[in-house]
Amino acid sequence: MQMLLSHFGHDATAAYSGPVALALLAQGTPRGVIIDLSTPGMDGFELARCIKPADLRCSSHCFTP
Predict the structure, then answer these.
(1) 47, 18 in Cβ contact below 8 A?
(2) DSSP 31
(3) pLDDT in tens, 6-59
């Protein structure tokens, strides 16, 4: 997904686990987040629950099977 988004001119960063994603989100607020439901270390639903209380104000969450 990161390569596809980058190919179309988007600045995309990938995190390969839930805890890494939270660390990256703490560094800055992205315009959108794509979350895999089977993220290692923390499932996608748990990651989304962590993002909301952190008030990161991401404009979108997309869940992929």
Answers:
(1) yes
(2) S
(3) 999 999 999 989 999 989 988 887 878 888 888 888 988 898 888 876 666 665
Residue 63, phi then psi, degrees to nearest 5: -105, 130
Q: Please report which confidence band the pLDDT of residue 1 belongs to, taking 50, 70 and 90 as the band edges.
A: confident
Taking residue 50's Cβ as centre, other Cβ atoms within 10 Å add up to: 16
CA dist 19 → 3, 5, 6, 9 (Å): 21, 22, 23, 27
Which residues, listed in sequence order, are joined to residue 29 by a DSSP beta bridge?
none
